[in-house]
Specification:
By secondary structure, the protein is an alpha+beta fold. The chain has three domains: 1-14 and 191-320 and 392-464 and 494-516 and 705-764, FAD/NAD(P)-binding domain; 18-151, Sufe protein. Chain: A, CATH 3.90.1010.20; 532-688, Flavocytochrome C3, Chain A, domain 1.
């Protein structure tokens, strides 16, 4: 008898094509016949291929026989050679020599077996090798297209038949007709993007379960949110099991900063308490009203206490004291993100005496406050290629798990991927089924509930294409295709979100955002800023200090180089800028001293010089031009002859606005209206405009919950026993990632994660 999944009276999802699942079933049957797993011997593969070919032929797939080759980009370039007969894929060869040896290359045999079994690119892939998996899928789609592959009866219609629906109830009095029409249009019910990204929830018979475990709480995903959820529930006296799809050797915590409001840690360094209602309102404003104020309020009001608790745990667990000790010198590891007082710098005071701890919010166009603790790690005098390279945040997070395990008896398992949530007749979540790296199927029964912290869907091109409507449209207008529309930078495959949808949860309605940080001309040593920007035609086009609007404003420009222009008083503009995520950072004052030294040492001329940056906690470099006149600067940066006079006229007009003390064009704050007229002149350039925009790092929309982080169904009722946190949680962002402080994604993850663990533990 199969464990019953949700049977409520609304749709839980749409199935993938029947032919594909028939083929996958054939592969599973082959394993059963041979008694060996897909990672075993060739006999299982051969048997699977025989059954897959049979299923493919019965489904009506047709090809032009031959051998076809395709390439795609994973971590490096990969090559696939696929051989077809009239009705099936008979052989696949992969060259993954440019992939990571222990990850992508190690996945080769499994990926080949999955492709042959599926007879399509609709494969599960290999956990931890998402980028390689996506490249393989793209290659196979290319080869199938070259072979003229079609499936009989589907060429002229994207409709999904009723036979392909999962738990759809067309008798629903309110939504029945809408469900039918969504299926007919090839859409998942309730979502505007086309394609069956949700697929079918797997079911498992009792005979398929290898092990059954009872516990109070299961946490799915052990990232920033999951680690806190495990500890939060364990501290409440619950038995807790945390599972993570990635293997221990593949797992890592991303980032280096935690946005935490009114923490004792910050107050001890002289930073005052802020008006948290004003902070919440700024989040809502920047999100275009698309956020859930209550979800944001949960974060803002509880983040300081969460951070302080995390640091106390570090002390208890014997972590290196440099991790939890404020030290903004070159020897320190942990600082607070803030800006500096320009008047003190101009007066020649020691750079360590120039920090501005109280003059906030900075408001060039949007408000920012110093609320971010940055676990930067050791100072380096050189530029670094990459983000979070020196981060020591991993020690903080590891301490949280260690305490949960050592002091409270929690259990954590890596290489164990959740497959589907279990529900009773009332729709309550009563457990989860998972599969470990050896293929063992484990059923976890929960008395309290499941906390889903499995991340977002940035690595899932089907989900991104259907759900990130604005960015998908931009990308397609520039010739981008769905198979390339994903992020390989730590993005998750969306399984956590899909499991909650299968259980009745709903993703935030469109428009949905992705983590595109900053905007306009921000490829500079000081990152996002409030200096003068001019487009490729030499025209100013927005309030440069309004980072929320800058990204979209830049995307609307004619494609080409845009220019940042400043002068000898550049530090006045740096200090007037907001401390955005990707904005300037004097938290380690030596960075500002390095910047001023590097700018002074640039030799005027027609070529740019790379200097050290001081944005967020990063140490990446940026190219800066330096010239004695604005005319020379325009020529050096390559301003076209047609645009040069407009470029110079725009600067003159901007200077007039500055002299008048008001930006009557776009409304930038008077504190940021700093004229550009004193040599030497500096400039940076960056391509903006109608360029193809892919998902960036993570997606910002997730599952809708109440203010106890309890997942809600279509009616707005709680799905008992199901909680969400981290990037699986909705209500946090609007269409992007413009925020009042850096580190708020991780800040939200740890705060909501801890609260979700506690809320779940407190459930009766």
């Amino acid at each position: 008898m199969k464990e019953k999944i949700s049977r409520k009276t609304f749709i839980k999802g749409l199935a993938a094509g029947a032919a594909s699942f028939a083929v996958l079933g054939a592969f599973e049957a082959a394993e059963s016949m041979t008694g060996k797993s897909s990672a075993g011997t060739s006999s299982a593969t051969d048997a699977a291929l025989d059954l897959a070919n049979s299923a493919a032929k019965s489904s009506g797939m047709t090809f032009t026989p031959g051998t076809y080759t395709a390439t795609a980009t994973g971590m490096g370039e990969i090559t696939m050679t696929a051989t077809f007969d009239e009705s099936s894929i008979t052989d696949i060869q992969l060259d993954l020599s440019n992939e990571t040896p222990d990850i992508g290359q190690a996945a080769k045999d499994t990926l080949i077996e999955q492709c042959l079994a599926a007879q399509s690119s609709e494969i599960d892939g290999v956990s931890g090798a998402t980028v390689t998996t996506n490249a393989v899928k793209k290659c196979l789609d290319d080869c199938i297209a070259q072979a003229g592959g079609t499936v009989a009866g589907t060429a002229s219609s994207s409709a999904i038949s009723e036979d392909e629906l999962t738990y759809a109830d067309f008798d629903d009095e309110t939504r029945g007709q809408a469900m039918k029409e969504a299926a007919a249009e090839g859409r998942v019910f309730g979502y505007s993007g086309h394609g069956n990204w949700l697929g079918k929830a797997p079911e498992y018979a009792d005979s398929e379960i290898d092990e059954e475990i009872d516990t109070d709480v299961v946490v799915v995903g052990l990232g920033h949110a999951g680690a806190q959820a495990v500890l939060g529930a364990a501290e409440k006296g619950c038995s807790v099991i945390g599972i993570e799809a990635q293997t221990k050797d593949m797992f890592a915590w991303y980032g280096e900063d935690i946005g935490a409001w009114n923490s004792e840690f910050a107050k001890a360094q002289g930073i005052p308490e802020w008006n948290l209602g004003e902070v919440v309102d700024e989040f809502v404003t920047r999100g275009g009203g698309r956020v859930d104020p209550g979800i944001v309020d949960l974060y803002v009001k509880n983040s300081g206490a969460t951070l302080d608790h995390m640091l106390e745990v570090c002390k208890e667990m014997g972590v290196d004291s440099r991790v939890y000790t404020y030290d903004n010198t070159e020897d320190g590891w942990t600082i607070i993100h803030m800006n500096a007082d320009y008047e003190k710098i101009a007066a020649g005071e020691d750079i360590y005496d120039c920090l501005d701890k109280t003059n906030y919010p900075r408001k060039p166009g949007t408000k920012t406050w110093p609320a971010t603790v940055q676990f930067m790690g050791p100072y380096t005098s050189d530029t670094i290629d990459g983000v979070s390279v020196n981060s020591v945040l991993k020690y903080v997070e590891q301490a949280q798990l260690d305490k949960a395990v050592q002091d409270y008896g929690a259990e954590v398992y890596f290489g164990t991927a959740a497959q589907v949530l279990l529900q009773n007749e009332d729709g309550d979540v009563i457990g989860v089924i998972a599969k470990d790296s050896d293929g063992k199927i484990i059923k976890y029964n929960t008395s309290k509930g499941v906390v889903m912290c499995g991340g977002d869907y940035a690595a899932n091109s089907d989900m991104c294409w259907a759900l990130l409507n604005e960015y998908m449209e931009r990308y397609e207008r520039e010739g981008g295709v769905k198979s390339d529309f994903f992020s390989g930078m730590g993005g998750r495959d969306g399984s956590s979100v899909k499991m909650m949808c299968w259980a009745g949860g709903q993703i935030d309605p469109a428009p949905r955002g992705t983590m595109i940080i900053g905007g306009g001309v921000n490829n500079t040593p000081w990152g996002s800023n409030c200096m003068l920007w001019l487009n490729c035609e030499g025209k100013r086009f927005c309030n440069e200090g309004n980072i929320t609007g800058a990204n979209t404003a830049a995307a609307r420009q004619k494609s080409g180089d845009a220019y940042l222009v400043t002068d000898k008083n550049f530090m006045k503009s740096v200090c007037a800028s907001g401390i955005e995520h990707s904005g300037p950072n004097a938290g380690r004052p030596q960075y500002y001293q390095d910047l001023m030294d590097d700018m002074e040492n640039i030799q005027p001329g027609s070529e740019p010089t790379q200097i050290r940056g001081c944005a967020i906690a990063e140490r990446m470099g940026a190219e800066v031009y330096k010239c004695d006149t604005l005319e020379e600067l325009a020529d050096a940066m390559g301003v076209s002859a047609d645009a040069k006079q407009t470029f110079l006229d725009s600067i003159e007009h901007y200077n007039e606005l500055c002299d008048n003390g008001a930006d009557t064009d776009f409304g930038k704050a008077a504190t940021c209206m700093i004229p550009v007229r004193e040599a030497p002149f500096y400039g940076c350039k960056q391509t903006i405009g109608r360029t193809a925009t892919k998902p960036s790092m993570v997606t910002m929309s997730g599952i809708m919950t109440d203010l106890s982080l309890n997942v809600l169904d279509l009616e707005g009722n709680k799905i008992n026993g199901l909680y969400a946190a981290g990037n699986s949680l909705g209500g946090r962002y609007g269409t992007g990632y413009s925020t009042p402080c850096a580190g708020n994604s991780i800040g939200m993850a740890v705060t909501h994660g801890r609260l979700a663990g506690q809320f779940c533990a407190d459930q009766a």
